[in-house]
């Protein structure tokens, strides 16, 4: 289930460490680094002020677009989309870089604020 992880990862980046996590998540984030240690690489994720998101996740030679809703509570972001069960991720962020960690697998991915 790498698709939910990619989306969740993007969602959590902007949230952590800000006075208003939802507001700090709003914007576009870009994944960084090689995907050699993960089942996917992250293209871009956009979190809208209305609580919706769109994301691009790369799985080898395949790219998937996913959209849905996100909710932030403390350092946890929950993503839910069409054909995707709700999934939660822990987020550590300094406002310009965020690390999303899947509590089930322990895998993490870093994202940088694009705009």
What is the compact description of this entry?
With 115 residues, the protein is mainly β.
Characterization of the model:
With 115 residues, this protein is mainly beta. The chain has a single domain (2-113), classed as Lipocalin (Beta Barrel), CATH 2.40.128.280. It is 15% helix and 51% strand. It is built from two helices and eight strands, in the order ααββββββββ. The chain has helices at residues 2-13, 21-25, and strands at residues 27-31, 41-47, 52-59, 62-73, 76-81, 84-93, 97-101, 108-113. Strands 1-2-3-4-5-6-7-8 form an eight-stranded antiparallel β-barrel. A hairpin with a 4-residue loop joins strand 2 (41-47) and strand 3 (52-59). The chain is globular and about 35 Å long. The model is unreliable at 1-20 (pLDDT under 50).
**End-to-end CA span:** 28 Å
Helix content: 10-25%
Shape: globular
Strand order, sheet with most strands: 1-2-3-4-5-6-7-8
Secondary-structure element pattern, one letter each: HHEEEEEEEE
The largest β sheet comes out as: 8 strands, antiparallel, barrel
- Percentage of residues in DSSP E strands: over 45%
Assembly type of the chains comes to single chain
Integer count of domains: 1
CATH topology: Lipocalin
Number of DSSP E strands: 8
Proper CATH architecture: Beta Barrel
